[in-house]
Amino acid sequence: MTRILFVCLGNICRSPMAEFLMKDMVKKRHMEDEFFIASAATSTEEIGNPVHYGTRRKLAEYGISVEGKYAALLKKSDYSEYDYIIGMEAANLRAMLRIFGSDPMGKVHRLLDFTDKPRDIADPWYTGDFDTTYNDIYEGLLGLLEHIERG
Ligand code: 4NP
Asked: Is the confidence at residue 56, as pLDDT, over 90?
């Protein structure tokens, strides 16, 4: 079982998009029993709120539902619960390391570091551009899946 936690600032735009897209990708590959996938926020700002309409609408284009997801706060204890803890941008990694203290097992990664064009995923909360966010997240998830499958 591979346990993956996606992390962003608010847990309403990018990390839920990564969570539910990754769940869909592993399901389509008939690998859903091999994964536990969730997402969390580094900020308390949106805790308890539902997924942002832009993310919901974009995922709905692909028939993916985010029903039942509400923003949750990253906890220090999450470090031992997951194999991969994946931020969307460099600032998320700095915030995670403040919460965890350190990353002795090398679990903390930036999603697009699993691609051949390492970069941050722009925050659609500010850009309003959920299409670019979706394309970037999909590219990162493909790279992550390849990395995991290579073992
Ligand atoms: P997310 O986007 O980190 O991708 O969920 C944001 C959501 C909320 C805020 C900022 C970014 N906010 O400032 O409340």
From this structure: yes
What's the average model confidence in pLDDT over 4-24?
98
Question: Distance from the CA of 97 to the center of ligand 1, in angstroms?
Answer: 19
Q: Using a 6 Å cutoff on CB, does residue 14 contact ligand 1?
A: yes
pLDDT surpassing 90 at residue 24: yes
Nearest CA to ligand 1 atom 6: 10
Q: What pLDDT score was predicted for residue 62?
A: 98
Is 94 a catalytic site residue?
Answer: no
Mean pLDDT value across the chain: 97
pLDDT given at position 151: 81
Calculate how far, in angstroms, residue 11's C-alpha sits from the geometric centre of ligand 1.
7
Is 13 known to be catalytic?
A: no
Q: Say how many C-beta atoms besides its own lie within 10 A of residue 128's C-beta.
A: 9
Residues 6+ apart with CB under 8 A from 10: 41, 43, 45, 46, 71, 125
